[in-house]
Amino acid sequence: MTENIIEVKGLIKSFKDKEVLKSLDFEIKNGEIFALLGENGAGKTTTIKILATLSEMTAGTAIVNGFDVLKSPNNVRKSISLTGQFTAIDEILTGRENLIMMARLRHLSHPKVIAQEMLEKFDLTEAADRKAATYSGGMKRRLDLAMSFIGEPAVIFLDEPTTGLDPKVRREVWELVSALNKKGAAIFLTTQYLEEAEALADRIAVLHKGKLIANAPLAELKAMLPEAEVEYVRKEPTLEKIYLYLTGEKGETNND
User: Fold this and answer.
1) Which residues in the chain belong to E strands, given as ranges?
2) C-alpha distances in angstroms, 157 versus 96, 116, 122?
3) Alpha helices (H) along 122-238
4) pLDDT tens digits for range 174-231
5) Dist CA 256 CA 219 (whole Å)
6) Of 51, 58, 49, which is closest to residue 18 (Cα–Cα)?
7) Is residue 1 pLDDT above 70, yes or no?
8) pTM here?
9) If you ran DSSP here, which 8-state letter would residue 94 be given?
10) CA pair distance 88, 148, nearest whole angstrom
11) Which domains does the chain have, with CATH numbers?
12) CB 203 within 8 A of CB 215
């Protein structure tokens, strides 16, 4: 096994005469959480689609889990899972049925046992046999993530997975992502929440107008800035902290 689970060199993507990705070079190590930041339209989702074999690059190379995304797309797909901004669950089915279906699609033995394990891990046991259409937004996201983690893929792509979730549920998702990363999966995360990248990522890259303008651990990124002046001011609590305090999550906000 090589040190890097993903290797990207000279990645270019153009739509007609518009170049969306401009010769990206980056690597992601085994077991690493890699966060890709960028404004809307920067090319974050396009990058994930190429690595997940959902879109073809214009030029360059991309290797995922040892497989070339163009030459061995089926092997890449067997190595990954993808959770997008919108849940991919079947709302006609129950939570349990969604999980069983995914286990069968991955050709795993004992899909019912796997489904039960996922229901317990993602705190969905009580709602297991309700149709997913009746789930809250947070429950749908947990179910969607549970489906993505079935089969213990080597690489998990999370494309803005907490968009639209309230702060409490967002932190629950963070805990799930961290726990599954500790089991060995590499996580490729795109997000517009800077605190999300700060809380989760081992390495952070910044994509701006199709170009990578930074790629380093958070400590190295902080060192790029001039030394801050020391000032003593009274720091008012943020609305997010107030919300979490009022909803009983006051011990979970270490963002000072």
Assistant:
1) 4-15, 18-29, 33-37, 59-64, 67-68, 80-83, 155-159, 186-191, 203-208, 211-216
2) 23, 23, 18
3) 137-149, 167-182, 194-200, 218-223
4) 888 888 788 888 999 998 788 888 889 999 998 988 999 889 988 888 787 777 667 7
5) 16
6) 58
7) no
8) 0.81
9) B
10) 10
11) 4-231 (3.40.50.300)
12) yes
Return the amino acid letter for 139: M
The number of residues in the chain equals 256
Number of neighbouring beta carbons within 10 Å of residue 232: 4
Spatial CA neighbour of 42 closest among 215, 196, 194, 191 = 191
Question: Helix (H) and strand (E) counts for the chain?
Answer: 9, 10
| 160: DSSP letter | S
How far is the C-alpha of 35 from the C-alpha of 214, rounded, in Å?
11
> In angstroms, rounded to a whole number, what is the distance separating the alpha carbons of residues 167 and 250?
12
